[in-house]
Amino acid sequence: MSEPLQLYSYWRSSAAYRVRIGLNLKGLPYEIVPVHLVQDGGQQHSEAYRAINPQELVPTLGHGQRRLGQSLAILEYLDEVWPDRPLLPATARARQRVRALSLLVACDVHPLNNLRVLQYFEREWNVPQPERDAWVKHWITEGFAAAEALLAEHPSTGDFCEGETPTLADCCLVPQIYNARRFGVDMAVYPTLARIEASCLALPAFDAARPENQPDAPVTR
């Protein structure tokens, strides 16, 4: 790999977590560039970072002179540039299923409990913390109920969302389960999702991507 990779990331961002998993699964070395989403009013809003990503979101992937946004687009870019250890399956049917499962998380669940949404509720409407937490749990459980139904007993579901190799769908699911646990969602209600998460976290690529294993994670004593 001739040009270095930098990942502008926040340790607890589930979108950045997805990309860390994908980079690790592909065995691609990269440098973490921390962007703290809370300190200094949110470093993603700084003029310097806005020049890198006008959406003021993480992650951004730096590849040479290119700055690439949107986690799913980044992961598909990685698959196209480095096709070894693919994140998408070989057949059109399987790719459609993996993309659908990925989008269920990335488009239908995650945006509704994103930090900027919760901050807006607090800043503009003075929504108390318990109500904000209830909002998050509602949309996670709605999405997880659908994901459980799509994955449970499906002939293509294996140790992972699609067969016996982790894919883009697993890159999306595991960070969302991390968020679910933060907000007190009972994962016992979703046994297939919990089983897939356990299969994923047993792999070094997923373990290294965990929020608590990031260089910008708070030190716990």
Describe this structure in words.
- The termini are far apart.
- A hairpin with a 2-residue loop joins strand 3 and strand 4 (66-69).
- This protein has a 4-stranded mixed β-sheet with strand order 2-1-3-4, covered by helices on one side.
- It folds into 2 domains: 5-85, 3-Layer(aba) Sandwich (Glutaredoxin), CATH 3.40.30; 92-207, Glutathione S-transferase Yfyf (Class Pi), Chain A, domain 2, CATH 1.20.1050.
- The longest helix is centred in the middle third of the chain and has 23 residues, at 129-151.
- By secondary structure, the chain is α+β, with helices and mostly antiparallel strands.
- It has helices at residues 14-25, 47-52, 71-81, 92-109, 115-125, 129-151, 168-182, 191-201, 204-209; strands at residues 5-9, 31-34, 60-63, 66-69.
Helix vs. strand class: alpha+beta
Helix percent band: 40-55%
Under the CATH scheme, which class of the largest domain?
Mainly Alpha
Low-confidence stretches: none
Total discrete domains: 2
User: How do the strands line up in the largest sheet?
Assistant: 2-1-3-4
Distance between the termini: 38 Å
Mean pLDDT: 96
- Rg, rounded, reads 17 Å
Quaternary class = single chain
Strand content: 5-15%
CATH architecture of the largest domain: Up-down Bundle
> Number of DSSP helices?
9
Shape: globular
| DSSP summary, beta strand count | 4
Task: Write down the CATH topology of the largest domain.
Answer: Glutathione S-transferase Yfyf (Class Pi), Chain A, domain 2
**Largest beta-sheet details:** 4 strands, mixed
Order of helices and strands: EHEHEEHHHHHHH
